[in-house]
Write a structure and sequence with these properties.
Layout (H helix, E strand, L loop, with lengths): L38 E4 L2 E4 L4 E3 L8 H13 L13 E5 L12 E5 H11 L4 H16 L1
Antiparallel strand pairs: 1-2, 2-3, 4-5
């Protein structure tokens, strides 16, 4: 089952107006932005061309489609952190640092501690390559 969050072909028809009905403030969790023809993917975020504002990816985390994606990734990874093996406080990490890129190959289960360490290490010079090497090696040995 594919749970990627992406625009459907019908979402490109701007003749019906924006999905929020020109009321973006009433759009709980910005759910409608993810299917709106006025949404554009720009620099790791969605941008509303109608209201000229960014729609942060954090709003998607309340959406049923994201929860299904998150649950599928945790299931795939055996409900364990892919670095330390913990089964507590699990997060799903975007390997390419793009929170709008939700394909399964880009997502990995990490515990809260390892997730924080990964983000901290990635900020260091050359850290992203080291983190990816650890994740790739751990993923290969877990398969």
């Amino acid at each position: 089952m594919n749970h990627e969050i992406q625009l459907l072909l019908s979402a490109f028809d701007r003749s019906a107006g924006p999905a929020c009905g020109d009321r973006p403030e009433a759009n709980g969790f910005r759910a409608l932005c993810y299917t709106c023809p006025f949404s554009e993917r720009r620099h790791n975020t969605l941008f509303c061309s109608r209201f000229r504002k960014s729609v942060g990816a954090r709003f998607k985390y309340g959406l049923p489609a994201w929860r299904a994606t998150r649950d599928a990734i945790r299931e795939r990874d055996g409900h364990r952190c892919m670095i330390c093996g913990s089964s507590r406080s699990l997060h799903v990490h975007h390997r390419d640092h793009d929170p709008t890129h939700d394909c399964a190959a880009n997502l990995i289960t990490l515990c809260e501690y390892c997730h924080a360490r990964v983000h901290s290490e990635e900020r260091r010079n050359g850290g992203a390559a080291r983190v990816e090497a650890v994740l790739a090696a751990r993923r290969h040995t877990s398969a």
